[in-house]
Amino acid sequence: MTARRAPAALVLAVATVATSACFVDYPGFHALTAAADMADGTVSTTGAPPTSPTSGTDSSASDSAASDGAASDGATVDASTGTTGAEAGSVGDAELLPPRILGVEVPAAVHLAGPVDVLVEVEHATAVRATLDGVELLPFEDQGGGVWLGLAPCYGSVDNGDHVVEVSATHGPLAASWPPVPFTVSTPAPGGQAWAVLAPPASTTRRAAATAEGDLIEVGAVEVEGVMKPAIRKRSAANGGEMWAEGTIVLDTREGSADAIAVRADGWMWVAMNVVNPNKKWQPRIVLLDADGHATGIEAPTEPGATVRGIGVTDDGGFFAVGFGGSGLGDMDVVYWRMSGEDVATASAKLWDYLPPNDMVEPHEFDDLAFDVVVADGVAWVVGASSGKHDIDQVIRSRGVVVPLDVNTGAALGPALVAEPVNAGWRRSMFLAAGHHPDGVAAVGNETTEDGTMQRITVQAFDGSKRTHYTSELPASVAYGTGVAWTAHGALLFSGVVHNGDGLRGALYGRELPGLNFDHFIIGTEPSAANGLALDAYEQVYLVGERTLGGVRQARASRVAR
To answer: What pLDDT does 225 receive?
Structure first.
């Protein structure tokens, strides 16, 4: 189990452990050692209890913990000072009472990803800490009454197996520890569906994001009086139920769709829409909503002539959004918008145009489009496609492209990175979605054959100068990727649409990590689509898109184990 640090606030309703907890408490042992501790000032709670623990810890494990964690005279060594409790029983003229751990509560079995509660009952402690499989967890929080709460993260099937929590408590230079407490993780196999829900008929979900609490935000469109209008909804991580009293919230009275979503650290949300203005022209609209999906009155200035497709939150709480629009000079250019956390617009439909390296071609000979953006460490990683004469044969082809831009100035931080074909038979490509990657950015889209009769989903990763990863899936008459995530454990997750069997089907794939290779398809005989994915704080997957039922499109969201 990977003991990554998890904020205490990240408590998922879906991850509440329903199994019976085992409270590791040895009152007889404490009674036997109390007199000795009072007499010599040592803290010997690492000693082995005289009876077998009720948590499943066997006495031999406790004996080992005693021999490993105690000084030769029975006093616990303070790891921060190197002194024992017997040597450090006072500070100045004030005598310190030695801390005492009275019990440690950890679930004996964990069956769901999420935060695993570790409850510790102590006396005379000013701090409680713990390790999970030897890796330190975040400090515990004092709940009052001598009870402290910590969280051990569980990331699903990747953590299946046996694990150990070791707890210590301190009071100034004095320290106490508790024998190791084991527990077992046994979660569903990756690719299994936890739940799936549908929105009202005549609706679709374009993109999704997870909140800090692990719930799902969907954006897309819903039909109102025969017109598709931008919409947003929030679903519970536990079962997919809608969490807002209004249910689905319509964001604009005009025809259009909400096509991108980014959630800020405070729970407020930037939503990017495309709507039909009073002049019957399409126009981007980028608004800030509060955590309940209501308008805050903060909106970026926009005008007709461009389309917005992706958005990311910047470190200051503002946004960087991307799309495409006509340059007025015969081609399409990448377009971006930027607003700071102080609600100051610094870029509105600013254009970026691709120029091939070491070539004297005139500007505006390539059509450039952006479909998504990832913001990290001051860099806006823009992904999309550039169509033009990329090859020596001077044939016009589309290629996936990655453009690193400075978040605040929009300046290019390096040359555009064009996805060169890996196989000569697949010379056309485009990127439709982006995700964070340790090198920089992961991009997903598709590759096609020269005649366009076959397609396949491709995932590629780039740093600031080159491609660092490439993978592709099996060919089909239609195949394209719509969402991608690279997990902290090195797993690759991506969504897409493929022609499978009799029609189009939405799909989710797991790759790159042993034991996590799966193909998950939306059920049904009528067409379906997976339009995007989102991960919660514990890397469980939300898959969003739509199904066609009786010839009517219907938004769909599901939660899939990983």
So the answer is: 96
pLDDT tens-digit map of 290-300: 999 999 999 99
What is the residue whose two structure tokens read 């379906």?
A: 528
Q: In whole angstroms, what is the distance from residue 244 CA to residue 235 CA? A: 8
The span from the CA of 309 to the CA of 72, in Å, is 66
Return the CA Rg of the chain. 28
User: Is the Cβ–Cβ distance between 164 and 133 less than 8 Å?
Assistant: yes
Task: Say if CB 269 and CB 245 are below 8 A apart.
Answer: no
Residues 215-239 have pLDDT tens digits of 999 999 999 999 999 999 999 999 9
Give me the long-range contacts of 413-418 (CB less than 8 A, separation at least 24): 413/379, 413/464, 414/464, 414/465, 415/357, 416/354, 416/386, 417/462, 417/465, 417/466, 417/467, 418/386, 418/390
Distance CA 83, CA 90 (A): 12
- Terminal-residue alpha carbon distance, the chain: 14
Give the angle 164-150-47 at the CA atoms, nearest 5°: 50
* pLDDT value at residue 89: 54
User: CA-CA distance, 272 to 282, in Å (whole number)?
Assistant: 13
Q: Report pLDDT digits (tens) over 442-453.
A: 999 999 999 999
Q: Is the dihedral of CA 382, 383, 387, 389 positive or negative?
A: positive
Q: How confident is the model at residue 190 (pLDDT cuts 50, 70, 90)?
A: very high
The overall pTM is greater than 0.70: yes
Kindly list the strands in the beta sheet with 203-210, ordered across the sheet, starting from the edge strand earlier in the chain.
203-210, 216-224, 227-235, 249-250
